[in-house]
Amino acid sequence: MTTLKLIDPVVEPQPALVPPAPRHLIHANGCPVYVWWVLGKRRNRTGQRWKCWFVYLEYRCADGSSEYVQMKLPLACSDDAEVWQQLSQVDLPGACVMASRARLIRG
């Protein structure tokens, strides 16, 4: 009887895409905003998939409830200082500086 020896194919390791650590950011209006990143996939017009970052900016409204704004960014943008500057300028509908400072969003 012949025993076949299975050979594992050589698989190129792919670099792990680690999102930036969640953190608080002081928005341009003085409101503390909690920012976290999630790796996701989108489809373009031709149906091709591409990976991107979904960035969430979470804050509090005057009644104490939390709201968030979602943005989609290319993978290369996670460490870019300009992106963090733009995140501090994003429109936050209904944001309340006092409520956000009174109860910070925790991750």
Topology:
Elements (H helix, E strand, L loop, with lengths): L22 E4 L5 E12 L5 E12 L5 E8 L7 H7 L9 H6 L5
Antiparallel strand pairs: 1-2, 2-3, 3-4
Protein described:
The chain is mainly beta and 107 residues long. The chain has 2 helices and 4 strands; from the N terminus they run ββββαα. It has helices spanning 81-87, 97-102; strands at residues 23-26, 32-43, 49-60, 66-73. It has a 4-stranded antiparallel sheet with strand order 1-2-3-4. Strand 1 (23-26) and strand 2 (32-43) form a beta hairpin. The protein is elongated, with a radius of gyration of 20 Å. The protein starts with 22 loop residues before the first strand and ends in a 5-residue tail after the last helix. The model has no long low-confidence stretch (mean pLDDT 85).
The largest pleated sheet is described as:
4 strands, antiparallel
Q: Radius of gyration from the CA trace?
A: 20 Å
The largest beta-sheet arranges its strands as 1-2-3-4
Strand fraction? 25-35%
Secondary structure: number of strands:
4
Separation of termini?
Answer: 60 Å
Number of helices: 2
Q: Give the uncertain stretches in residue-range form.
A: none
Structural class: mainly beta
User: Taking all residues together, what is the mean pLDDT?
Assistant: 85
Shape: elongated
SSE pattern, N- to C-terminal? EEEEHH
Percent of residues in helices comes to: 10-25%
